[in-house]
Design brief:
Length: 270
Amino acid sequence: MSHTAHIRSHRKPRRSTPKISVRAGVAGGVLSTLAVAGAAGAANAAEPVTQTVELPTLTADLATQVAQSADATQQAAANYELQAERDAAAAKAAKQAKSDLADAKKKAEATKKAEAARRAAAERAASRSAERATLSASASASTSASTSTSTATGSAATVIAFVKAQIGDAYVSGGTGPNSWDCSGLVQAAFKQVGVSLPRVSQDQSTAGTQVSLSNLQPGDILYWGGAGSAYHVGVYVGDGMFVGAQNPSTGVVEKPLSYDPPTGAVRVL
């Protein structure tokens, strides 16, 4: 056995080849990275640096809130518009109601007046019917009892002859002859023939003489329609229940029975 067989060798043990290869690869990679980084740094140093600022984006919750707020604003505007329309409609309805109420009051008043006029007309018609009956009875009694009331003499005969001579002439308001007359113009002209001066208008002629009842008429009496002093028409009683007068534009001067248009009263001037 050799005397050096137990002496430990001072030589480092040999590393295995695979580990050395790995380390060499790592070292090479590091160097390559450093080289690339250096090249990139040099390139960046030569070009200007541009920074990009990213704006914050809306989150889904915030977008929903914005949409809801817009909807609420739109709904509020719609509500205001609807309320304005309702207020305008209410004001218009109130105005229309006021107008309708005024119209209703006017119609009610008109109806009331029309009813009053109808009743008054009915009362006048009834009164006239009663007067006709009275006059007819009076005329019949007078004719059967005596002929003195139907035979005119003296001045009365002259008056009656004059008015009968004008029968057929025209009626003209304000007419005083010789071919057209109104009622009071004819009566005034007739009595002028016998020297009696009468007032010009019916109202005054109805109070020119002595008032007589319709049941005691004599030829030549002046008949009037309306109140004494407010008469609107006059004529001359010619006997036998007849009178002559300038009635209206349609008839002119005519001779009619008392029942045709019963007078209100009579006056005697002869």
